[in-house]
Amino acid sequence: MLSQSIRSGGVVVCPTEGVYGLSCDPRSPEAVERLIALKKRSLSKGLILVGQSLEQLSSYVDFERLTAADHLLFRQHWPGPVTFILPLQQGCSKLISGEHNSAAIRITAFPTLREICRQVGGPIISTSANFSGEEAVSEFAKLNQELLGRVDLCLQLPCGGLCEPTAIYDTLRQKLLRPSAHWNSLNQQEPL
Fold first, then answer.
1. Does a structural domain hold residue 159?
2. Which one-letter DSSP state was computed for residue 60?
3. Could you tell me which residues come within 8 angstroms of residue 106 by beta carbon, excluding any fewer than 6 positions away?
4. How far apart are CA 107 and CA 154, in angstroms?
5. For 161, how many CA atoms within 13 A lie in the half-sphere containing its CB?
6. Domain harbouring 95, CATH code
7. Do 25 and 7 touch, CB atoms closer than 8 A?
8. Residues 36-78: pLDDT tens digits?
């Protein structure tokens, strides 16, 4: 079972809203370190945390440092396929934040991820299932076989239909860092 593998410190491949992701439990430094090494990702970059609710992320995100406009933005886009850069609570792991005092956070509406987070009992790390510098993929058959051979478990279910990674919006700088067709369609009439 995928959630059991995550809870026991495993690194897994599972579908996300748009592409396949590598996931693990952010509460396990060993699992996060293994995921970063497996992906060949720089420690300075930080990772995405995905949860099924704000409550799941309350021990990570410093929601009090955000403005009323930020909270309105969340209500408009969450749960959904938009990732926000948010300030972290004091003492959060640098494995999650990298060289920043913030992290990429998403409250997902994708049923598969929501159920994984529910079963794990908290948020999970989610980063594209590829080696750094390679293209993220939305078809299981296109995943790198070497990468698949290094993970503990793969959930071979379809992705959520976006066919691209989620948009990333930096609330601290009020800047769109990674656009997506979904973001563009939601914000055509009311730009930020």
1. no
2. T
3. 48, 49, 50, 51, 78, 81, 82, 83, 84, 126, 166
4. 22
5. 6
6. 3.90.870.10
7. yes
8. 999 999 999 999 999 999 999 999 999 999 999 999 998 889 9
Average pLDDT score over the chain: 92
What domain count does the chain have?
Answer: 1
Cα(183)–Cα(19) distance, integer angstroms: 16
> Are the CB atoms for 74 and 84 separated by under 8 Å?
yes
Q: What is the pTM of this model?
A: 0.91
Instruction: List the beta bridge partners of residue 48.
Output: 104
- 170 closest CA partner among 46, 84, 107: 84
Beta strands in 20-115 (DSSP E): 20-24, 48-51, 82-87, 102-107
Q: Is residue 92 part of a domain?
A: yes
